[in-house]
């Protein structure tokens, strides 16, 4: 099992957290999603976490991942 951490930009409320959680949870194989509003942190646990799929799901929810240089993605 792999857990990756991302930073989501633009979340301001619990509705934002629910939207991101729901979209990312729909990715095939994802077993756990944890979103922290205060820090913008998104943790995704799956056998193999697909960064592009996570970014797409976050975008579908109406938000964006921070760039790698902005602590958007954890080291692989």
Quickly describe the structure.
By secondary structure, the protein is α+β, with helices and mostly antiparallel strands. It has helices at residues 14-25, 51-60, and strands spanning 2-9, 32-36, 41-46, 64-65. It has a single domain, classed as Alpha-Beta Plaits (2-Layer Sandwich).
Keywords summarizing the entry:
alpha+beta; Alpha-Beta Plaits; 2 helices; 76 residues; 29% helix
What's the end-to-end separation, in Å? 13 Å
Sheet with most strands: 4 strands, antiparallel
Low-confidence stretches: none
Oligomer: single chain
Please count the beta strands (DSSP E, at least 2 residues each). 4
Any idea what the shape is?
Answer: globular
The CATH topology comes to Alpha-Beta Plaits
Average the pLDDT over all residues and give the rounded result. 90
Q: Explain this structure to me?
A:
The protein is α+β, with helices and mostly antiparallel strands. The chain has a single domain, classed as Alpha-Beta Plaits, CATH 3.30.70.100. The protein has 2 helices and 4 strands. The chain has a 4-stranded antiparallel β-sheet with strand order 2-3-1-4. Helix 1 (14-25) crosses helix 2. The mean pLDDT is 90.
Reconstruct the topology from this structure.
Elements lengths: L1 E8 L4 H12 L6 E5 L4 E6 L4 H10 L3 E2 L11
Antiparallel strand pairs: 1-3, 1-4, 2-3
Helix pairs in contact: 1-2
């Amino acid at each position: 099992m792999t857990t990756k951490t991302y930073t989501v930009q633009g979340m301001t409320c619990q509705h934002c957290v629910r939207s991101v959680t729901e979209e990312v949870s729909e990715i095939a194989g994802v077993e756990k999603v944890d979103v922290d509003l205060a820090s913008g942190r998104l943790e995704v646990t799956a056998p193999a976490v697909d960064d592009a799929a996570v970014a797409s799901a976050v975008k579908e929810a109406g938000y964006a991942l921070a760039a790698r240089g902005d602590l958007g993605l954890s080291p692989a």
